[in-house]
Specification:
The chain is of the alpha/beta class. The protein contains nine helices and eight strands. The longest helix has 18 residues. The protein is globular.
């Protein structure tokens, strides 16, 4: 199964963003997220020793079935190879960097470039992105995303990140959103694994309520 297929078949499309996590914190945090039902985890490259954390997370996730583990804030195509070398299958970028998206797709990894406009969204689709990361979602809002969504292929996955929490899932679903990246409302450096797991469980329950099978 490809990384893109893994994302497509996930019943809960939540990406947990662990910005600032350390390698020592990673195992317990990842186990808690996986137990809560989260199957996609992003460790931004501006975290301490991110590749070590990604490697540890990927090793743990192998025992939980199809998962996506990888990096965010990916700015250079060379970083894609580094992420893949430690077992990563997910690349999240803040922009539509053609070289990064192409390298990700060619490596068989899931690509989620950041977009804010229809122009950026269509460019990312043409490059073969797995899905679109609308950021910061709180600024464009459900209405703005719905307007752009109307111009996109129906099969495109739209994720929203930035100022969006579990309470917003139902509203964004009406705008055609299919997935969510949860950052500081799920994890902040210093939070315990149990705290994050509890928030993740609540988010998973909210997703399933908003997106019944």
């Amino acid at each position: 199964m490809t990384a893109a297929q893994t994302w497509s078949e996930m019943d809960v499309k939540i990406i947990a963003i662990l910005r600032g996590i350390t390698p020592d914190e990673t195992p317990d945090m990842v186990r808690g997220l996986l137990a809560a039902g989260v199957r996609a985890i992003e460790i931004p490259l501006n975290s301490p020793d991110p590749l070590t954390s990604i490697k540890r997370a990927a090793e743990i996730a192998r025992a939980h079935g199809p998962c996506l583990i990888g990096a965010g804030t990916v700015l250079e195509p060379g970083q894609v190879a580094e992420i893949r070398s430690v077992g990563g299958t997910l690349v999240v970028s803040p922009d539509v960097n053609e070289a990064v998206v192409r390298a990700t797709v060619q490596a068989g990894m899931a690509s989620f470039p950041g977009v804010f406009t229809a122009t950026e969204a269509h460019r990312a689709i043409r490059l073969g992105a797995t899905g679109l990361k609308f950021f910061p979602a709180a600024l464009i809002g459900p209405g703005g995303i719905a307007a752009i969504r109307a111009t996109l292929p129906a099969t495109v996955d739209i994720c929203v990140v930035g100022g969006v929490g579990a309470a917003d899932f139902a509203g964004y679903r009406q705008s055609g959103v299919t997935g969510y990246g949860l950052g500081t409302n799920l994890y902040r450096p210093g939070d315990s694994a149990s705290e994050v797991a509890e928030r993740a469980s609540e988010a998973v329950d909210a997703f399933r309520a908003a997106y019944p099978a």
